[in-house]
Amino acid sequence: MKAILLDIEGTTTPITFVYDVLFPYARAHIRENLSAEDVAALRVSYETDLRNGFTPPAWSDAPVAYVEWLMDLDRKSTALKNLQGKIWLSGYQHGALCGEVYADVPHALERWRQSGIDLRIYSSGSKLAQQLLFSSTRDGDLTRFLNGYFDTTTGPKVESQSYVVISLAFGCEPADILFISDVVRELDAARSAGMATALCIRPGNPSQFPGTHRTILSFDEIQ
Prior knowledge:
Blueprint: E1 3-6, H1 15-28, H2 36-51, H3 64-72, H4 78-93, H5 105-114, E2 118-122, H6 127-135, E3 148-150, H7 160-170, E4 177-181, H8 184-192, E5 196-200, E6 214-216
Parallel strand pairs: 1-2, 1-4, 2-3, 4-5, 5-6
Helix pairs in contact: 1-4, 2-4, 4-6, 7-8
């Protein structure tokens, strides 16, 4: 194993932190963080939704209702994720937010890096949001252990081609990369691209049938 690719929500970080802390904070600060660039990107997303048969709320020049609609559906929209990342940046900078990871994560990241393993993150959250989370934990700045970040601009996490692209970015064979996630569909996609996989089972994660994927309860099991 030369590399490890990590999911965030339910893998390195409790689901409750995302849904009970990050998402409500973003929802409460939409309007004051909407730039013209955000509105333009959201408009493209809105038009795509209409073409695809969705029924979002009526468009407005400050499309707060549309952003809230995307959040309610937990859509992996790049326009939404970029806006959320910007909102969270302000929250982290002002001390309103602090990144949260499971207790086993900091030591595992350090141990793996000392072993020469290339560590990177793949999350539906923007690259900025990922970096903010790992740079502000109670265990300090964990980005020093991470070599790269992948988000929705790489491709959907449930499509094998996304993992082919990621393998090329790592610069090694897919079989030399271990992908750890709490979502079986993501693991299925990674395995179809040739990666090794492990299903991370954490407290509060939805119950899933792992199929033939290895299961772990802690990063301590990956030596």
